[in-house]
Amino acid sequence: MINHRIAQILKTGQPEENLTVKGWVRTKRELKGFAFLELNDGSSLANLQVVINQDLPDYEAILKQINTGGSVEVTGVLVASQGKGQRIELKADTVKVYGDADPETYPLQKKRHSFEFLRTIAHLRGRTNSFGAVFRVRNACATAIHQFFQQRGFLWVHTPIITASDCEGAGELFSVTNFNLKNVPKTENQEIDYSQDFFSKPAYLTVSGQLEAEIMAMAFTNVYTFGPTFRAENSNTSRHLAEFWMVEPEMAFCDLDGDMDLAEEFLKYIFKYVMETCPEDMEFFNDRIDKTVLETANNIINNQFERLTYTEAVKLLEKADVKFDYPVSWGADLQSEHERYLAEQLFKKPVIVTDYPAQIKAFYMRLSDDEKTVRAMDILAPKIGEIIGGSQREERLDVLEKRVLAQGMKTEDLWWYLDLRRYGTVPHAGFGLGFERLVQFMTGMGNIRDVIPFPRTPQSAEF
Amino acid sequence: MINHRIAQILKTGQPEENLTVKGWVRTKRELKGFAFLELNDGSSLANLQVVINQDLPDYEAILKQINTGGSVEVTGVLVASQGKGQRIELKADTVKVYGDADPETYPLQKKRHSFEFLRTIAHLRGRTNSFGAVFRVRNACATAIHQFFQQRGFLWVHTPIITASDCEGAGELFSVTNFNLKNVPKTENQEIDYSQDFFSKPAYLTVSGQLEAEIMAMAFTNVYTFGPTFRAENSNTSRHLAEFWMVEPEMAFCDLDGDMDLAEEFLKYIFKYVMETCPEDMEFFNDRIDKTVLETANNIINNQFERLTYTEAVKLLEKADVKFDYPVSWGADLQSEHERYLAEQLFKKPVIVTDYPAQIKAFYMRLSDDEKTVRAMDILAPKIGEIIGGSQREERLDVLEKRVLAQGMKTEDLWWYLDLRRYGTVPHAGFGLGFERLVQFMTGMGNIRDVIPFPRTPQSAEF
C-alpha cells in the first residue's frame, strides 16, 4: 500500500534499483526516439525525471495521452542521469496513464501564474512549486509544535469552537445558529427568542481558547491548544483571515520569566525543525519569494532574544534618530513601525517587550505592584514584527474581579473563570501564536491567504 | 521553568533526592505530630505522598491553610515510604501555600460524584481521578494519530471550518453569519440578502473535511485532516455531540484494499500506543469504569481483522440463530445489533464489512461493476460497533456526474470537486474516524460528553 515516494527515491535511490512510482506529470519533452517526463507526487519540490524510450510498446499512443497535469504510474529501473540537475532518473519499462489533463483547458500550464490567479483555483494550486513548498512547510511547522510540547509533558487540549461567552467583548464574533434566518423567532417583546435556538442562547465562534486552556492548566499544569479561531473583522489585508489556527500554551506555577523562556525556546525549536526537515523548500523560498527568509530564520535560531520593558522601549524610541508616522508616548500602544525599529534597527534580533500599560491590555493580565502596568510580553522579530503575545495571568480573585468590572463585564458571566482563583489558584502564564502568521513569516509569502489551503476572508468562502 | 512533575518522580525518584514539587492537594490527613498530603499535578493518576512534620515552622498555621483543592509548593527530600501503596514519599522541608479552597464551598470533596454532576462543573472536573485519566488518554490518542501519519509521510492539512457548500445535503448544518439576527436584511423579494453577510453567501460549519482532503491528496498523495466538525442534530444521546473532532486520511493511488490495510494498521497503532504510554490510566478504566476495556484493546491489537462483503454479512445474519429487533434484508443498512452480532458473537474480533448497496451510501463512493454496490467499508469492533467508515472514491468523471445528479445535487456547486476528475484523476480512498468515539471506546466511558473537555449538545454551550 505504501508506494515509493519521489522524495525518498531522489535521496537514497541507487542505479539498477527496480521500482514503481506514481505521480502527476509536470512537463513532457519529446525528443528524437525518446521522451522525458518530470514527475511529482507532492513529497518534494524536485521532480523525478522519467525517460521513455520509443521501444516501449504503444510509445506513440501513450505519449499522446500524457500531458502536463496528467497522472501516471511508471515501473522501471533507476539509472545514473546523463543530464545535469539530477543524480538519477527512472528508465521506464511500463507506463500506465490514470488520468489525462486536456492542455486546452488545464489551467496550470508551464508559464508562471500570479498568486491572485492561483487563489481562484485553490483546488489545483497545491500542484505548483510554490504551494507544494508552502504546504510541506506548514505541515512541518505543525509537527514541530506538537513535538515541542509533547516532549515537555504538555497535554494537547481541545477547547471549544462554539462558545456562549463573548469575553473579550470585541464584537468581531461570528454567530452560530440553526435558526431559519428568513424567519428568526421573536418573543412577545420582539426580542430574539433564543430559547428556540440550538443552544438556547446566543452562540459564537471562538476568538481564543485561552480561558478554557487556563481551566485545563489548573488540573494538568502544562497544556496547549492548537486549533481554529475566528474573527468576523472586515479587514481585507494581506495579514488577516476570518478563520485561522492558533497555538496557545498555558502553564500553571509559571511567571512571566518562565513564559518568556518557553516562548523563546519554542520559536527557536520550530524554525530549527523546519530548516532541518525542509531545507529544499526553504532554499526555494529564499531564492524565489523573499531573499531574507534564511537570514531571518537564522537570526531567530542563533540569537538570545533581547528583553526590555515597555517603559524602556518608549525611552529608546523617543531617543531614536528616526521620524515615525505615529508619535511615541508612554501609554500608547506600539505601532508596527516602532516594533520594527526596535527589532531591525536597534537590536537587530528578536526583542521581547514586557510590562505594558494596563489600560491597553486585556483584563486577565496580572497587575504589577505599580498598579499601572501588567505582566504582558510581546515578541517582536526582525522582518516579522509581533509574532507572539503573552502574559502572566491575574491569579488574585479580588484584583481580577475589580478588573472585570472596570472593563464593563459581568462577574456572573465569568463565574467559572473566577472559580479558578477561588479554589487552588496559582501563578500561571501563557502565550498565543497565530499559526498562519508564523508560516507566512517562515516562508516569506506576502499574503496570508497563500499559506492556508482554503482561506476565508470577507466575501470569500470558496471550496 | 520546567518543574519536577509527579509522574516522573514516582517513576524514577530515588531516596535522598532533594526537589521541589507543585500541585493541588487531593487529601490531607492529620495524625499525632505529623500530617500526610496527597499531591497531584495532573501528570499521573497516582499522587505523591508528602509528609509534614510538626517541627516545620508555623506547622499549625500552614496546615490550617491547606485543604482539599488547595495549591502548594513543597520542597523537601525523597524518602522510602514506610506505608503501603507507594514506593517513595516526600519529606517536606518547606511548604508554600499558593491558594486555598474553602471546604465549605469547594465542590470536589472526597466523596464520589456522579458524572452528571461533574458535567456542571466541567471547569473543575479535570482534577478528579476519572477525568484526569480521560484527558491524559485523549492526549495520548491524539499524539498517536499524528505520529502514525507523520511517520508514513502524510501531510496534516487544515481543511476549512466555515464552508459555503452543503454537499452532503444533510440539513443538519449550523449557519455562520454576522447578520444582526434581530433584523436580517432582506431583498425586495423578501429573500435573505446574503450580499450583506460576511461571506456574501450562506455559510455553514463543516460536517467533514473529506472533499477538501481529496483536493490535497491530488497534489500531495497522502494527507490527513484532524480537526473539529459539527452536526446541528437534535440528538440528546450518549453518543452524539454537536461539536466533535474527526480524523480523515485520504490517499491517492490507493484502492479499497489499501484503505482497509491502512485503517487496520492505524487502529492497532493507536490502541498499542495508549496501552504503552498510559498503562496506569488504562488499568484504572478497567477497574472502575468498564471491566472489558483492556480485553477490547487487546482484541483489536492482536487479531487480524475479518473482512467480508455486505452481501456475505447479510447471508450470515439471515442464518443467525438470534432474534433481531430489525429485520435483515439486502439493501437495508445494518443496525447496531447486527454489527455487534458479527463482531462479538460470530467472529469475536474486529470485522470489516465492504461493498455496501449504492443507494444507502454517499455519492462520492466508487461504483462497482455490478452497478449495485459501492466500494465502501465499515470497521466494526467488539463492544464498540462501527468505529471507522471509509471508501474508495469515484474517480471517473462521467460516473460521478451521474451520481451527483441522481442525488438531486448540482454539478455546478461541485465544479472544483469534479475538476479533480477532469485533470489527472487517480484511484483514491480514505476513511473517517470520530475522535471522541475512539476515546469513548478506549476508556469505556459511557457518555461521549465525558471524553471532551467542554461538550456542546442541544441547549448546552457552557464554559
UniProtKB/TrEMBL annotation, chains A, B:
One of its GO terms (molecular function) is ATP binding. This is Asparagine--tRNA ligase. It comes from Cuspidothrix issatschenkoi CHARLIE-1. Residues 135-453 form the Aminoacyl-transfer RNA synthetases class-II family profile domain. One of its GO terms (cellular component) is cytoplasm. The gene is asnS. Keywords: Aminoacyl-tRNA synthetase, ATP-binding, Cytoplasm, Ligase, Nucleotide-binding, Protein biosynthesis. Homodimer. It is found in: Cytoplasm.
